[in-house]
Specification:
Elements (H helix, E strand, L loop, with lengths): L1 E4 L2 E7 L8 E6 L4 E4 L5 H13 L4 E5 L5 H4 L2 H5 L6 E4 H22 L12 E3 L4 E4 L2 E9 L6 E8 L5 E5 L15 H14 L5 E4 L8 H21 L7 H14 L7 H5 L1 H12 L1
Parallel strand pairs: 4-5, 5-6, 6-7, 11-12
Antiparallel strand pairs: 1-2, 2-3, 3-4, 8-9, 9-10, 10-11
Helix pairs in contact: 5-6, 6-7, 6-9
Length: about 280
């Protein structure tokens, strides 16, 4: 738990490795609980709901930072039987509607009954820079476009004169290998460059994967992506995909670059998408 002000406490629920170490955040105000991102698997979603209920205050809002299932899968169960607004930027909400069924078809057979049977969608769409007040908690949504996903965003939370905190979703992973398979690594780098200035004075950044830190985690993610892209560029040699031996070499080099980091299977998962992206850039 982190006490941001006497009237606001912050809790994190973090899944295990099967749930991709996804973070869900609970903000407890004097009158209710706000959740940012909702986890991936049935067991983790149930544990998250239990954490909310244990606080003894009503759930008053849910925010989804971007359209990947490890962040939106839990919305249905978390808000079941409750009249709770679910906020996301317009781009995030649109993309969730477009890809949720395909993600279930892709990953449902992998996770079996741990994959939620139903999807609930954002009910309130926010514009870039739109600010809302939830019981004295001021939340501002920022749309940053494609990056780690097809539609990334982050939230700035101010409360009762406290110092701001940024809930950055997957704009930067921290101490884990990231997901690159949506093929927007160039745009992602541009976002990180912008946010290095925009968030330079925000003392607390809360990522979707890994521990909270300061703005330095943006620079760490930038270094990782630059290295990943250059290794893929060399191994692809202008082609839109990597051979299986080249993917194995990519994984070996990234394991050396970031030793002891989990989610190593993500390294090869994004190889072809980034190779195709680099090939298109060169044309």
């Amino acid at each position: 738990m982190t006490v941001i002000t006497p009237a606001l406490s912050l809790y994190a629920y973090t899944a295990g490795e099967t749930g991709l170490f996804a973070n869900s955040y609970l903000l407890e105000t004097g009158t209710g609980v706000v959740v940012v991102d909702t986890n991936l698997l049935v067991s983790d979603i149930a544990a998250l709901r239990a954490r909310v209920e244990a606080l003894g205050k009503p759930l008053v809002a849910v925010f989804v930072t971007h359209p990947h299932p490890d962040h939106f899968n839990g919305v249905f169960e978390l808000t079941r039987d409750l009249d709770v607004p679910v906020y996301a930027t317009a781009a995030v909400a649109k993309t969730i509607r477009e890809i949720a069924d395909a993600k279930r078809a892709q990953w449902g057979p992998v996770y079996g009954d741990q994959w939620p049977a139903e999807t609930a969608y954002p009910t309130v769409e926010l514009g870039d820079g739109e600010r809302i007040d939830i019981g004295g908690l001021e939340v501002t949504a920022h749309d940053v476009g494609p990056g780690e996903s097809h539609a990334d965003s982050y939230l700035i939370v101010d409360s009762l004169g406290g110092r701001p905190a940024a809930f950055i979703g997957d704009v930067a992973f921290h101490r884990t290998h990231p997901y690159t398979a949506d093929g927007h690594s160039g745009a992602w780098l541009a976002t990180l460059d912008r946010l290095a200035h925009t968030l330079a004075d925000v003392p607390l950044l809360l990522p979707g994967h890994g521990p909270a830190a300061g703005p330095e985690l943006l620079a760490d993610q930038r270094r990782y992506l630059l290295f990943y892209r250059e290794v893929v560029r060399r191994l692809a040699n202008g082609g839109p995909a990597l051979t299986e031996p080249a993917k194995a070499q990519l994984e070996a080099e990234l394991r050396r670059f970031q030793p002891d980091a989990p989610l190593t299977w993500m390294i090869q998962l994004g190889a072809d998408a980034v190779a195709a992206e680099l090939a298109a850039e060169s044309r």
